[in-house]
Amino acid sequence: MKRHFYIIALILPILLFSCKSAGQIAKTNFDSDVIQTVKNMDTRQKIGQVLMINFRYCKASEYSGPKTNLTDFEDASGKIVKVAPLTQINSTAKKVIQDYHIGNVILFAENLSDLNKAAFMISDMQLLSKSNSDLPLIISVDQEGGRVNRIFQTATFPPAKTIGNTQKPELAYTEGKYLAMQLKALGINLDFAPVCDVDSNPLNPVIGNRSFSSNPETAGEFASQLHKGMKDNKLISCAKHFPGHGDTDVDSHVGLPLVRRSKSEWQKLEAIPFKMVIDEGIPVIMTAHIQYPGLDSSKITSKKTGRTIIRPATLSKKILTGILREELHYNGVICTDAMDMKAISNNFSESQAVIEALNAGADMICNPISIIEQSDLARIEKMYSEIEEALNSGKLSKSRLDNAVLRIVQLKKDYGILDKKYYRPTDADLKKIRTQLENPEFYTFKNRIKN
After folding, report:
1. CA 165, CA 224: separation in Å to the nearest integer?
2. Nearest in space to 209 (alpha carbons), one of 143, 260, 282, 146
3. Helix axes 169-186, 427-437, angle to 10 degrees
């Protein structure tokens, strides 16, 4: 009997840990109506629901405005073409939203230069989705403060580092509250903030003062408060860039960075802010297009170039599922950083990048393809067809896609996106939007931080 008790005493902690881990990493408890909604979707609707598309530009040939608005853009073939900012829905954007059941959109400064047009475009996108019997859209933007802003007709707040230097986390909460007020006024429901990267490399060309601090606990505390300010005001927040972009000396917009830290070093530094915001219920976490062999040294062969490279974190199951889901017990939505950044687009085809990211554990795929003219629709059709082929062959499991869609639909429900009434703004609505964006509290707060 004593021997049996001794064996049980040895095994029990293992069983408890296993049960605890299994419970914490299990699928989110999705609401029954969310489950039914996803069951009623066909495959293409599910694919559309995990994609976040940008309509940043349209090709000059589809633009009737002033020629002074034209700028250079590198198209999918690498050719430089003339494009103009898209500030109202055109036939190409309409066809993409309706024919491909897009679930999410990301906006840029080019789309938001005119507030009246932006308000109409956002409402038109939602009405298009509704008229197609699809779910309302998540409409997202990067509005961090500092050098990363997309809306300039309102107070733009100082960089995260300036707020972190105040040593007053409550200011981050207030900023989160004000960001929610600003973005929701226009119909935007997700902000890609806070930055959870630790400012640990002075040669970093892309993070720097976008980070709250070089101290991981401080970075985590301020990021948590920014998230809380948004959450309490019903705006979706997104922590970025997992597993940590702070210790890089290459900008992933133009190349593929490599971080040389060990896993134990990562646990003592870059993991801390992400663990803190996870504990506070952050609803979305964005991946980083970085190689991190201390976390995953496995290789992947590019169908685009034929080269074999260390898997970027965005395409790594060990990092997104093994570490983020299983070790950090994260149950929210995992969103990729923009897939048209050179770190990914230089190495992978559009469909390979999407399939690998979904297989790794990502739920929402940001900027998987750039659509600037009608002829680009052939590329999006090709991408859908290749994703369907991967699903039919088992290269991408249908349950993995379903789980990603469930998380996104649940997020939309949790933040009231499914229940909101959508309509074109009236003159009175436009005036109200402008008044909300010109709130003097925003400017008082901005000047307080600067001082």
Report:
1. 16
2. 146
3. 160
For the purposes of burial, counting CB atoms within 10 Å of the CB of 352, is it exposed (0-12), middle (13-18) or buried (19 or more)?
buried
The pair of three-digit structure tokens given for residue 43, joined into one six-digit string: 């495959």
Q: Is the dihedral of CA 145, 425, 98, 34 positive or negative?
A: positive
How many residues belong to the chain? 451
Collapse the DSSP code of 16 into the 3-class scheme (helix H, G, I; strand E, B; otherwise coil) and give the result. helix
pTM, entire model: 0.92
Among residues 134, 197, 296, 337, the one annotated as catalytic is 337
Q: Confirm if 282 and 226 have CB atoms less than 8 A apart.
A: no
Tokens standing for residue 186: 């226009």
Residue 370: φ, ψ to 5°: -105, 120
227: annotated active-site residue: no
Q: Is the pLDDT of residue 22 over 70?
A: no
CB atoms within 10 A of CB 29: 8
46 token code pair: 């599910």
Residue 193 CA to residue 212 CA, distance in Å, equals 11
DSSP state letters, 43-99: HHHHHHHHEEEE--EEEGGG--S-GGG-EEEE-TTS-EEEEEE--S--HHHHHHHHH
> Two tokens at 110?
């080019």
Task: Look over the chain and give the mean of its residue pLDDT values, rounded to a whole number.
Answer: 91
Q: Cis omega (within 30 of 0) on the bond before 194?
A: yes
- Could you identify the residue written with the tokens 């995992």? 334
The partner residues of 190 in beta bridges, in order of sequence, read 140, 236
Tokens 């969103």 appear where? Answer: 335
> Using CA atoms, how far apart are residues 398 and 46, in angstroms rounded to an integer?
10
Pick the catalytic residue from 99, 253, 329, 429.
253
Instruction: Report yes or no: 358 and 396 within 8 Å, Cβ to Cβ.
Output: yes
Q: What is the pLDDT of residues 333-365, one digit of tens each?
A: 999 999 999 899 999 999 999 999 999 999 999
- For 95, half-sphere exposure in the C-beta direction (CA atoms, 13 angstrom radius) is 13
Give catalytic status of residue 101 as yes or no. no
pLDDT, tens digit, 9 for 90 and up, residues 253-280: 877 889 999 999 999 999 999 999 999 9
- DSSP character string of 85-126: E--S--HHHHHHHHHTT--EEE--GGGGSSHHHHHHHHHHHH
- What is the distance between the alpha carbons of residues 140 and 189, in angstroms, rounded to a whole number? 6
Q: Phi and psi of 131, rounded to 5°?
A: -65, -20
Does residue 327 sit in helix, strand or coil? helix
